[in-house]
């Protein structure tokens, strides 16, 4: 057990909760791994009371192993949560229980509510309600509640990193797993891991977790982890083989990565060529391919570079707020310049000035293909740069989802989580600036092209709707730019080809299909149709904005009094899950709003062709897949608490349907 990480990830050392001592113990002393540790106070398999980090609350845990190097015990809670504790944070169960019974009668887990009424209470008592999930016994501490609140808020921070499932766990049949869970349920009615819904049964066995202390959670004061903790984490990260810090492969795994690398650019090419056809029907497949030299245009390349540089300059200007991202695995919180609204306003002024000066923006329509190819080349160069630099980055900076050890997969999915050049955050910048604002610029250019091509004095109603709807979407995203810091892309996904291409090519050149289509395929709208579409858009926008803001506000400050009416479920990480409000209606209310908006973007284009409906179709696929990705990620993070959330909030995106 020289290397704690080897053992942590090694299937050989897994003891499912409740299995008791193992054959690794000898009659002459206790062996932890291959090393004899006669001086260790608690033995592997012992049931003891472990202190929850940052609190004075003790819960029944089972000792899994001891790491002589770090002098830490790895213990497992009843819900499968693993935590590393110092010896002084462990007490023997025998003497403890007498004390605990007399002091905690009124707080017995059986009587404790598993759901809080308010985030304020969540934060204050997150430990004790975490206990509702994991504890068999707990005592109150001697610290007065008010002091304890602060103490907890500041110190009850844990770091989660998914453990690879053990072979034994993998081999477990569902049946066996359910039996185990039933047993566990009996042991502790709060540690409920049984999947009651058929849907939950289909989903994977809950993973086990490794929790380490960390400064975390929105409610806590933004701060880096204690140097001592940071060192500890860094040392462990360094000792861990990079490839083990990863989550299961996505997007069809390694083979899938090859497929997407080829398919995505080909699909954009297809769409761009197709929308140019007089009759963009599926029967006109494939569209004629232009000669290679027609694809490359130095001028178009130059314009794209200039646009990106212009946005980069706006991004680095010391204008606007410096917002803090969510805590990283290292405990650090990165700062982001959230001046997106400023950037879009300055860009609009610059574009207006250019048009006023006689710049013909319909160039964007006539050179759409060349501009798309130029952006594609830039995204490839950027992805190569990102991958190369990620090879020299420390393991703690890597994205768990893009750290498979397979070059192609990691290149595609994104190896490094937050690549930065000094304070310049490449992922945040690319996601929020050139492509997103470029999307509005292209739409505007399409409106001008429509007027030119159709000989109109003003853009058509349909074109105006599409322009305004999508402008609202982008400006809203930039106005609420801080909220992006609590989304999946920023928190979990690495920055690689998928996002670089997505941000620089996919968004500006495929999200503009509706406006491009309308340039040469007019679709006049009656007033009732127009009104109905506007109402639909506003409904979608309301759901989208409210739900995103609710989650963002909650993640940033769970004890915000404005959110005190919301019910929450505690999780073993110290973070809670919203279970009422928007997030109590469906598991992804923001996706629902987004999909309704997508419908409103396609409707103005009519039903003559499938092409303007492409976004809607793609978006359903994207969001359903994202929802599944998020489900697995949250299950890994929150274990049984997530299962409870899913049982309470049964539908994923569409209430009562899906
Ligand atoms: N137009 C486009 O192309 C796209 C738009 N979008 C939009 O971007 C927005 C962000 O989407 P996305 O990043 O995918 O996902 P979310 O913003 O929904 O983020 C998911 C995260 O929210 C947290 N969470 C989930 N459930 C709860 C809960 N009940 N209570 C509290 N926190 C919860 C979890 O993170 P944790 O617990 O770790 O905080 C989870 O990982 C959405 O509105 C989406 O529609 C997304 C993709 C593409
Ligand atoms: C190429 C792949 C198949 C898919 C790539 C997906 C990306 C294009 C999207 C992933 C998440 C995104 C978000 C937005 C744009 C699209 C991408 C990058 C977003 C910035 C759009 C504006 C919204 O207001 C938002 C909520 C800020 C969005 C965040 C997610």
UniProtKB/TrEMBL annotation:
<keyword id="KW-0752">Steroid biosynthesis</keyword>
<feature type="transmembrane region" description="Helical">
    <location>
        <begin position="295"/>
        <end position="317"/>
    </location>
</feature>
<feature type="compositionally biased region" description="Basic residues">
    <location>
        <begin position="100"/>
        <end position="127"/>
    </location>
</feature>
<feature type="transmembrane region" description="Helical">
    <location>
        <begin position="495"/>
        <end position="513"/>
    </location>
</feature>
<keyword id="KW-0238">DNA-binding</keyword>
<feature type="region of interest" description="Disordered">
    <location>
        <begin position="94"/>
        <end position="228"/>
    </location>
</feature>
<keyword id="KW-0472">Membrane</keyword>
<protein>
    <recommendedName>
        <fullName>Delta(14)-sterol reductase LBR</fullName>
        <ecNumber>1.3.1.70</ecNumber>
    </recommendedName>
</protein>
<keyword id="KW-0753">Steroid metabolism</keyword>
<dbReference type="GO" id="GO:0050613">
    <property type="term" value="F:Delta14-sterol reductase activity"/>
</dbReference>
<keyword id="KW-0443">Lipid metabolism</keyword>
<comment type="pathway">
    <text>Steroid biosynthesis; cholesterol biosynthesis.</text>
</comment>
<feature type="compositionally biased region" description="Basic and acidic residues">
    <location>
        <begin position="175"/>
        <end position="188"/>
    </location>
</feature>
<feature type="compositionally biased region" description="Basic and acidic residues">
    <location>
        <begin position="196"/>
        <end position="206"/>
    </location>
</feature>
<feature type="domain" description="Tudor">
    <location>
        <begin position="40"/>
        <end position="98"/>
    </location>
</feature>
<keyword id="KW-1133">Transmembrane helix</keyword>
<keyword id="KW-0444">Lipid biosynthesis</keyword>
<dbReference type="GO" id="GO:0003677">
    <property type="term" value="F:DNA binding"/>
</dbReference>
<feature type="transmembrane region" description="Helical">
    <location>
        <begin position="525"/>
        <end position="544"/>
    </location>
</feature>
<keyword id="KW-0256">Endoplasmic reticulum</keyword>
<keyword id="KW-0812">Transmembrane</keyword>
<keyword id="KW-0675">Receptor</keyword>
<dbReference type="InterPro" id="IPR019023">
    <property type="entry name" value="Lamin-B_rcpt_of_tudor"/>
</dbReference>
<comment type="similarity">
    <text>Belongs to the ERG4/ERG24 family.</text>
</comment>
<feature type="transmembrane region" description="Helical">
    <location>
        <begin position="565"/>
        <end position="586"/>
    </location>
</feature>
<keyword id="KW-0963">Cytoplasm</keyword>
<keyword id="KW-1207">Sterol metabolism</keyword>
<dbReference type="Pfam" id="PF09465">
    <property type="entry name" value="LBR_tudor"/>
</dbReference>
<keyword id="KW-0539">Nucleus</keyword>
<keyword id="KW-0560">Oxidoreductase</keyword>
<feature type="transmembrane region" description="Helical">
    <location>
        <begin position="598"/>
        <end position="624"/>
    </location>
</feature>
<dbReference type="GO" id="GO:0006695">
    <property type="term" value="P:cholesterol biosynthetic process"/>
</dbReference>
<keyword id="KW-0152">Cholesterol biosynthesis</keyword>
<feature type="transmembrane region" description="Helical">
    <location>
        <begin position="368"/>
        <end position="388"/>
    </location>
</feature>
<dbReference type="Pfam" id="PF01222">
    <property type="entry name" value="ERG4_ERG24"/>
</dbReference>
<dbReference type="GO" id="GO:0005637">
    <property type="term" value="C:nuclear inner membrane"/>
</dbReference>
<dbReference type="InterPro" id="IPR002999">
    <property type="entry name" value="Tudor"/>
</dbReference>
<feature type="transmembrane region" description="Helical">
    <location>
        <begin position="255"/>
        <end position="275"/>
    </location>
</feature>
<feature type="compositionally biased region" description="Low complexity">
    <location>
        <begin position="128"/>
        <end position="138"/>
    </location>
</feature>
<feature type="transmembrane region" description="Helical">
    <location>
        <begin position="338"/>
        <end position="356"/>
    </location>
</feature>
<dbReference type="GO" id="GO:0005789">
    <property type="term" value="C:endoplasmic reticulum membrane"/>
</dbReference>
<keyword id="KW-0756">Sterol biosynthesis</keyword>
